[in-house]
Structures are given as C-alpha cells and as structure tokens.
Amino acid sequence: MGFPGEMSRAAQGVAYAIMAGMLLTTLNAIMREVTATMDVYQAQFLRYFFGFVVMLPSIWRDGIAAYRPNGVWGQAWRGVVHTAGLTLWFTALPHLALADVTALGFTTPIFIMIGAVVFLKEKPDWRRWTAAGIGFAGVLVVVAPGLSGGGGFYNLVMLSSAPLFAASFLITKALTRRDSPQVIVVWQALAVTLFTLPIAIPGWAWPGPWVWVMLFACGLLGSLGHFFLTRAFAMADISASQPLKFLDLIWAASWGFLLFHEVPSRTTMMGAVVIFIATTWIARSESRAARQREKTLHAR
Predict the structure, then answer these.
(1) pTM score above 0.70
(2) Hey, which of 7, 189, 213, 238 would disulfide with 173, CB 3.0 to 4.6 Å?
C-alpha cells in the first residue's frame, strides 16, 4: 500500500500512524467483547496466534527465506519485552476502572519520546514535545472526572507496562534499519504467541464459533495495524508519530458509542477537540518541515 508521490516520507509516516491507531483501536473494541467470554491470558495468546495465522499465506507465497531476519536475537528480545508489557497490562486490567487504564496507557508516548532522544539519538523538537503535552492535557480532560484512584497496587502494575511498551516500540524502530516491516510483524506475532502460551494454558476454555470469528478478525486487524505502525516508524522519526497516539481516544469513543451505546460526555468532547488541535498541528508542522528539508537538499 502506498501514498501519492507528492507526499513526503514524514507525511506518509504520519498517515500510516493514524491508520494504525484506527485499526488497533478497532481491535481493542472487539477484544473487549472477547475478554468477556474467556480468560484474559488465553485471549492474549489467541489474538497473536491468529495474527500469525493471517500472515501464513504471504509467507507461503514469498517463501520462508524472505522472512529471515538480519539477527534473530533482536526479534526475540523485542518479543520478550512486548510480551512482558502485555502480561502486566492484562494482569491489571480486571482490577482498574476503564478511565484509569486509559490515563495510564497514554503515558507510553511520553516514554517513547524520551527514549527516542536518549537511545536513538533523535533530535528533540519543541513542536513534538508541545503537541505531546497538549495531547496529554486533552486526555486528562477526558479521564480526570472518572478517575477513581481505587486501583491501588494495580495502578503501579498498569503503569509499569507503559515503559515496556515504549521499549518495544523503540526496539522496533531500531529493527526497521535492517529488516522490512513484514519481517518485523511476522516475528512479533510468532514470538508473543510462543511466550504467551504457558500463561494461557491454565485458564483455557474452548470458545464458541462466533468468538473464533472475532479472534480471527483481531488477528487480521492486529497484523495490519502493526504493519502500518512499523511503516510509520521506518518513514519518520518515532517521536514524530507519538503525538498522533492521542487520536486513539477519539476512535475509542466512536466505537464505544457505535458498539456499546456509550454516549461521550461533555469532557470527552472537550478533550477530543484539544487532541484534534494538537495532532492536526503536529501533522502540518511535520509536513512543512519535511518539504523545507527536501527543498534545501535539492538546492545544494
């Protein structure tokens, strides 16, 4: 999948990040239904198992050699880190209010932006940090009225998953320098499936036919969403895509209304406007900056 040639690589990266957010938020909406019928660790395992299954036709068509990574250990290490974050997230999920989960989850982009500067040596950009700060303020507008503070220890468990997810995405950015997005997504699905299986077995219960359909859809959405996200990381600085993460709150509110008849509150709408302003501004700023860099390069 490609974009018009006149779009800069940075702008294409932004577009891929937005599409990834839409797909992964849709996946989360479906998984909300799935986890109501089975053990959360089993759901976690099956989501990544089907994520690998939906990619088997491509592997068969292109051959296994096309998916051989330039270093298995980097892919395995990323799988370990991502699985650890997922396990903490699912462990805390039943014990926290949804607003608490949302607020804590949106700390991940901040950890990513810090890590991108420290470990990937990306240049800090005041526009990105300002957009991230404004977007995070918009999230707080949405979730603050519902924060219960009753999660106790599990608030810390959920919060501890955020830097692990950030580390996983930073490893992904590093891997894009030597492996294609397809290879990275395939190995992520395979690694998480294998590492999650042991904790899925104790609570295993066979789901009904409709749940299998939803799990397959989750596998498809997850693989495509992570492919788009990896493409975004490959085409632009990872810190440039992080303010766009706050758009996920808008997608989540939309699915909540359509599927679960949850009417967005006034604070949700106010926060959505703030988030929209922040993400629109950073997207336009990144596009202008990329065009200016290209003009400067051609002028030399």
Answers:
(1) yes
(2) 238
